[in-house]
Amino acid sequence: MSLLSVIVPCLNEEAAIPFFYEEMKKVEERFADSYPGLSFEYIFIDDGSKDKTVDVIRSLRKGDNRIHYISFSRNFGKEAALYAGLSKAAGDWLVCMDVDLQDPPDLLPEMFAAVADEGYDSAATRRVTRRGEPKIRSWFARMFYRLMNRISDIEFVDGARDYRVMTRKMADAILELGENNRFTKGIYSWVGFNTKWIEFENVERIAGESKWSFFGLFRYSFEAILGFSTAPLSFVISLGFIVTIMAFLLIIFVIIRTLLFGDPTSGWPSMICIIVFFAGTQLLCTGIVGAYLGKTYLETKNRPIFIAREEE
Ligand code: UDP
Ligand code: MG
After folding, report:
1. Which residues surround ligand 2, an ion (CB under 5 A)?
2. Ligand 1 atom with minimal separation from the 9 CA
3. CATH: 3.90.550.10, 3.40.630.30, 3.40.1000.10, 3.30.365.10. Which one for 2-225?
4. 199: buried, middle or exposed (CB in 10 Å: 19+, 13-18, 0-12)?
5. Residue ranges per domain, the chain?
6. Which of 134, 167, 250, 287 is disulfide-compatible with 240, CB 3.0–4.6 A?
């Protein structure tokens, strides 16, 4: 017997949960044919919902003891919910999915096959269309992925969802990253492992509404930049460098000009040289402090130094 844990974060999802459960039962039937030895467990995370989400989960649990849940004392965010779910799950395989059916349960058999039969450590999904989403939001998303891939060492896949099947080993690796500010897509990518990407078309949510506002997404992308890149800190060093070099050129220019044409506004040449020179060196020094701060910042995350995929 082996176990697949389904981890489902829920914030104000009383309307969507029953649909989700029904869909999953259909998917389970498909699994019963191809993987008779496989059983399911469900870990619902109520992320501080203000509606009847937790009651709905409780009543499902009465009829099905494979359902477990954690109810948060307040809203901690989806990232925290996923972490809680991964740490509670007992499965040999784990899958994180949204409750609103925007992560199509129909894909699950194919994803599971990749991990169970094809030797992958994880099967991830990405949306290839953003149909039904405001154009401006899609544009910002595209720009964001382009920027992240330039300033960060790890790969960010455009349209990637948090919907992912993974082995126990990969889940344990994710749990080892105990940082408080979590950007799950980055963490998935940081821990590595062989991942099969499965593409699908965007689906509208079944009930309820999206928890994301435009500014929410903006903050979220900021989280990603701060969490996975120290590029903004190194930027100051480059700027300081450029300003210092410009200051030197300016000083040479001002000296030559003063020698040739005299000093009509008395004191100006020396003044401007001093100002520009110190602005440059100050920026450079701030940048150096920033570089050390960047290293300290990464150290305080206490991430593992390596993650093994296999060893004997
Ligand atoms: N969610 C959560 N905590 C939050 C925000 C969202 O647990 O603070 C859950 C939500 O219930 C849903 C999933 O995360 O199951 C994705 O949220 P949503 O559908 O709002 O995001 P979108 O699909 O619009 O990106
Ligand atoms: Mg959704």
Report:
1. 100, 102, 205
2. 7
3. 3.90.550.10
4. exposed
5. 2-225, 231-300
6. 287
Highest mean pLDDT among 45-54, 149-158, 251-260, 300-309: 45-54
pLDDT digits (tens, 9 = 90+) for 128-139: 877 767 788 788
Give the ligand whose atoms come closest to the C-alpha of residue 20. 1
Instruction: Return the higher-pLDDT residue of 160 and 167.
Output: 167
- Report residue 270's pLDDT band, with 50, 70 and 90 as the boundaries: confident
Place of tokens 């501080």: 48
Per residue in 35-79, pLDDT tens?
Answer: 988 999 999 999 989 999 999 999 999 999 999 999 999 988 899
Which tokens go with 263? 């000093």
Q: For residue 168, what are its two tokens? A: 């126990």
Q: Which residues pair with 96 in a beta bridge?
A: 7, 164
Neighbouring residues of 243: CB distance < 8 A, sequence distance ≥ 6? 276, 279, 280, 283, 284
- How close is the Cα of 37 to the center of ligand 2, in Å? 31
Instruction: Give the pLDDT of residue 128.
Output: 84
What are the Cα distances from residue 73, in Å, to 46, 117, 208?
9, 39, 22
Q: Above pLDDT 90, what percent of the chain? A: 38
Query: Is the shortest distance between the CB of 77 and ligand 1 below 6 Å?
Result: yes
How many whole angstroms separate alpha carbon 27 and alpha carbon 37?
15
Q: At residue 291, what is the residue type? A: A
Burial of 71 (0-12, 13-18, 19+ CB in 10 A): middle
Look at 84-93, 127-136, 179-188, 293-302 and tell me which has the smallest mean pLDDT: 127-136
